[in-house]
Amino acid sequence: MEQTSKRHVQSFVNHTWMLRYGAPLDDSTNQLIWSFIVAVLSLGAWAGAIHSGSLPVRYGRKKALLINNVVAIVAALLMVFSRMARSFEMILLGRFLYGYNVGLGLSVHLMYLGESSPKKLRGFMTLTSSIFIGFGKVMGQIIGIKEIMGTEEMWPYLLAVSGIPAILQFVLLLFFPEAPRYLYIDKGDTEGSQKALQWLWQEDNLKLELDDMQKERQSTQGEKAKTVKDVLTSRCVRWQLLTLAIPCAGVQFCGINALYFYAFDIFRESGVPEDQMHYLAIGIGATELITITLCSFLIDRAGRKKLMGYGYLLMGVTMCVLTVMLSIKDLNSWIPYVNIGLIFCVICIYGLGPSGVSMALPADLFLQAWRPSAFVISGTINWLGMFLVGMLFGYVVEGLGQFCFLIFVAYSIFSSAFMLYFVPETKGKTMVEIMEDFNKLNYKNRAADVEKTDVALATKL
Question: TM spans, by residue (predicted)?
């Protein structure tokens, strides 16, 4: 979809420039404008992630999502009318608003699902965000082919397609209740929380969940939502923060985007025609979607720790093999086909482990008072990481060639060791139980304090 959009948008920018200034736009300036159109999505997402610490606290999870859908609808309208208005600046603004929508929506979506799901299904429910991201990629690649919407006449509507799910979610959300934990713990609305749980779970026996929320509310009585500074400086969430930052938010540094970049070069070396590349891209996206969907059925059985830890380990090993095979690709004609197989192996491992778990695990790590600010930090690392990788990766490839994968191998192996040796399993545990497990790490040099520590340690500095 991006390659299709690039061709038509650059043509539109050049045409608009001609109408305004009577002279064509030089190629370097046109490429610079396109690069900024691409990069501004990450900056908008960062802005959205920053607001994910305040909007869902002030207005609630549901209203924050409704506001976010309005942002996406406005962005879609800007895309539709950009050609009519002969303004590529509208595309820039639309991309920024799409980014804001993604940055805010992803964090609040995970909060809402994590605070509304029973513990035995929490992993599956929060992982649906990865499933729909993968589904969106595949649908974008499919409708972006020239036989559907990848044409000169249809590109503004192609860029506006994201407004359709925003409208759908806006309408459906009107019938959904607020997140039960937000109502019970933040607002003290016991009756409203119970009604929300009954509506969402379709069960009457809610005693265990209400008792768990009661324990958490007692520990946070009178405490306001924590700030980003609190999360960064407080000892009582130190290991949760490290878990959030290294294997989860830092998933951009595992090399998956680099792999997508290199995949097309390997396809060319294998003799795949240029006009067939788009269909292979659909195949890659479909592979990722299938494996993420499979991960959703495994995560509450195998657990977060094993899926992510061994996933990163296998990614690192496979990328090591791929680096070696890329170095000897000219020795034999069959080696490029092996490299294609290795690319699909890495994508399968990524979908089964790091991709899905990096979305599900953050919802497990923090109690209510800490969660919004924690997602601000997670979103900041994630989106700035994407921005930096996008801006710098070309230079890294130019300097290191296929050996650029060794950087990602180092990150993957380190994240694997961190997950397997330090992070406790969160599968099937309540928020309070998870906090008690992490307190053993946060206060491991103060054994006497650990014995006296209760949930209040997670909310009082």
Answer: 32-53, 65-85, 91-112, 124-143, 155-176, 241-264, 276-298, 310-328, 334-353, 374-394, 400-423
